[in-house]
Design brief:
About 40% of the residues lie in helices and about 20% in strands. The chain has one domain: Rossmann fold (3-Layer(aba) Sandwich). Strand 8, helix 6 and strand 9 form a beta-alpha-beta unit. Strands 4-6-5-8-9 form a 5-stranded mixed beta sheet, with helices on both faces. A 4-stranded mixed beta sheet has the order 1-3-2-7.
Length: about 230
């Protein structure tokens, strides 16, 4: 936060190809209190004209994305995530989302560290008989507007998952895109709403915030049942 003025003035206004690394963003700061919780970084950085924003899902996604990000002439902010994941990602393209699966009942849109939990939640929901899509929104600015609209049109409900404040993050991005193209779809946001998270071990934070695979799946399943009851 202290560096923001310099980023905005020296990098953003000058539009220099500086690449910024955000370390332990979101819930990855686990035991740190509010002063060291970076849960509004996406909102802040995407607000700078010309600043690109990327949020790799894990180490594999990070390694695949960095060459393209570094070769860009635009300034960029990257949520660094070096945790190992179980999924082998597709080649990275700036401004393109990674479609893992497609679903007609629900499509989950997620980025960063919570991709792994969303992937496990998707498998749980599939076992419950739901057709569930999963999209890795690895590039938030530029964002894949085409895929957001495709997901909205092929599914009865969208779910946005992020370890970020509800304001200014993926939920806001999706809302902006849907409004831009005049598309309406039921959307369930899973994020931090107007509050900091209680510090603790990462496993404890995920449990408290309801972002374990099981709790994510439960919330989506309950919302999908309400959707079909209407």
């Amino acid at each position: 936060m202290r560096a923001y003025e310099f980023i905005r003035t020296d990098v953003g206004i000058a539009h220099l190809p500086v690449k910024l690394s955000g370390y332990i963003p979101g819930l990855l700061s686990d035991g740190n209190g509010p002063t060291h919780q970076s849960i509004e970084d996406v909102a802040i950085m995407r607000g700078i004209p010309g600043m690109e924003v990327y949020c790799p899902a894990d180490e594999d996604d990070l390694v695949r994305s960095l060459p393209a990000i570094w070769s860009s002439n635009a300034p960029a902010y990257v949520r660094i995530n070096h945790k190992k994941g179980e999924y082998t990602h597709r080649p990275f393209e700036r401004g393109r989302a990674e479609v893992v699966t497609e679903g007609t009942d629900v499509t989950i849109l997620v980025y960063g560290f919570l991709f792994g939990n969303a992937l496990k939640a998707q498998r749980i929901l599939q076992q419950e008989g739901l057709s569930v899509g999963l999209v890795n929104m690895r590039s938030l600015k530029p964002v894949d507007e085409t895929e957001i609209i495709r997901a909205a049109k092929r599914s009865r409900m969208l779910v946005t998952i992020e370890d970020h404040l509800l304001t200014g993050g993926l939920y806001s991005i999706v809302a902006e895109v849907l409004l831009k193209y005049g598309v309406t779809v039921r959307t369930l946001p899973l994020a931090l709403e107007e509050r900091w998270f209680k510090p603790g071990l990462l496993t404890e934070v995920l449990e408290t915030e309801g972002l374990t695979p099981e709790k994510i799946a439960g919330k989506i399943y309950s919302s999908s049942n309400l959707l079909y009851a209407e």
